[in-house]
Amino acid sequence: MAQHIVIDRVSKRFPPAKRGGEEIVAVDDVSLEIERGEIFGIIGYSGAGKSTLVRLINQLEPVSDGAITIGDVPISELRGRRLREQQTRIGMIFQRFNLLTSRTVAGNVAYPLEVTGVGRAERQRRVAELLEFVGLAGRADAYPEQLSGGQQQRVGIARALAANPQILLADEATSALDPETTAEVLDLLARVNRELGVTIVVITHEMEVITRIADRVAVMDAGRVVETGLTYDVFTCPQTDTAKRFVQTVVRALPAGDDLARLREQHEGRFFTISFTDEGVSEARVFSALAKAGVDFNLVHGGVDDIQGRVYGLLTIAVRGDAEAVAWALQGIGSGVTVEEQR
Amino acid sequence: MSDILGILPDLAEQTAIMLWMVALALVFGGVGGLVIGTGLYVTRRGGILQQSAVWWILNLLVNTFRPIPFIILLAALQPIGRAVVGSGIGTEYAIFAIAIAATFGIARIVEQNLVALPAGVIEAARATGASPWRIIRTVIIPETLGPLVLGFTFAVIAIVDMSAVAGLVGGEGLGNWAVTYGYRQFDEVVTWSALIAVVIVVQLIQALGNWLARRIMRR
């Protein structure tokens, strides 16, 4: 697949908040290549620089250093009218939706079409089509405050898609929504990607968002991208501490500290953590292998997760029995799993 | 003392003159204030047309004119009035002076209402590739229209207040009438009927402003 967005050694510095204070480096020497038609996630804690980075892509903020290219357009070099022309080709949605309260749903969706000079009749046709697509046909004349958060974000998505952009930037688009609505909005974004072929860049601090829709992910920390890879790979095999902490927010991870101490009080035996990916291993196979070996075991922590339709298991079990039997049992699970004892 | 029925025609005429003064001063001062207030907002640091030199000049102008007591400004603007409206006295000149004072007062009111606009809606408009001028027309003004109407209503009442001293430069209106025929001739009926007329006018203006703002804001 062709590169769609190329971020080449980009930095963004803001002047100090106070006179004589220190310059703020929001984005620090970041390079990323985002492919045409993929959903690319950028995850990081608040203050990691991800929101600034996404604003550099559509040049709401100019870069301090480096270059950003979209297709073959060096967008970070453009100013004024030529920049605005490129901006019409990039849609953006926001955490707080940012709808115009003075306009109806239809008026909001029509806004980018007015900017690009689309005539009234064509605007009306396009707005109806978009509202249909996001599941809000019939709410055209409602005002934003009459809609729920999820509906407002759908309007935001319809607005972002109005001018037929090739790229959609989603800045914490589901952070203000409840889990159920989040899932609906993410499914809609996945549909935008699949049916319209729009490249989507998703900024979030929620790992669930990444695991649900992102093909690839970059992990940001203190203005830098510390890890990049396929979502499944970063998820099952995080390399950096930041990535590990994010992974732990969704996988019930490894027990540690107080949790581990409490589990030890409740369960006798040695603790092993068995991790496996989807290559022919399942939870059932792990349990049946242990049962067959005749050792007494208990699942004390962890579970199996679904990442983009693929399986990732991380099970911590307490096993009782003599050392030889335990070793034999664990070996019996076979290949494709990693077993680690928790001491 | 005059009898109330006898002064009614004068009262009506002077009320009409006052309303005329207020209306014209509001139109000119309102447009001027909207332009300068919006100018302050868009040129400030972080604004969509950030331009510190322009902001600095506008801010200095507003800060210079606004604190001048109106009665002094009315006297001081006479030379400019002669150049612009052809006279340094009379009702027309008074309208000119009120419009100038209102411009700078309204500029601050406009600016204060605009800064309350959430930055996100402007960012969303910028992201669609909208130009600064389009954003002013289609986002900044429409999104703040409700509070602006309330701000203008507040300004109208200040203008009514200013119109009352027009008599200093030979202008007419309720204020001049109350001072000349009421205060100076110890005719409390005149003074009080002028006062009641002003109160009624102000109440009506405020009610109209509230109604309009509520309609715009849909609450």
What key phrases describe this protein's structure?
heterodimer, A: 343 residues, six-stranded mixed beta sheet, four-stranded antiparallel beta sheet, B: 219 residues, mainly alpha, 9 helices, 80% helix
Structure, described:
The complex is a heterodimer of chains A (343) and B (219). Chain A has 343 residues and is of the alpha/beta class. Chain A has helices at 50-57, 80-87, 105-115, 120-133, 149-161, 179-196, 207-213, 231-236, 241-250, 257-266, 283-292, 323-332, and strands spanning 3-14, 24-35, 39-43, 65-70, 90-94, 167-171, 199-204, 216-221, 224-230, 270-276, 296-307, 310-320, 337-342. In chain A, helix 3 crosses helix 4, helix 3 (105-115) runs parallel beside helix 5 and helix 4 crosses helix 5 (149-161). The longest helix of chain A has 18 residues, at 179-196. The radius of gyration of chain A is 24 Å and the shape is elongated. Chain A starts with a strand and ends with a strand. The model of chain A has no long low-confidence stretch (mean pLDDT 88). By secondary structure, chain B is mainly α. In chain B, 80% of the residues lie in helices and 0% in strands. In chain B, helix 1 packs across helix 9, helix 2 (52-65) crosses helix 5 (90-115) and helix 5 (90-115) packs across helix 7. Chains A and B meet through helix 2, strand 5 and helix 3 of A and helix 6 and helix 7 of B.
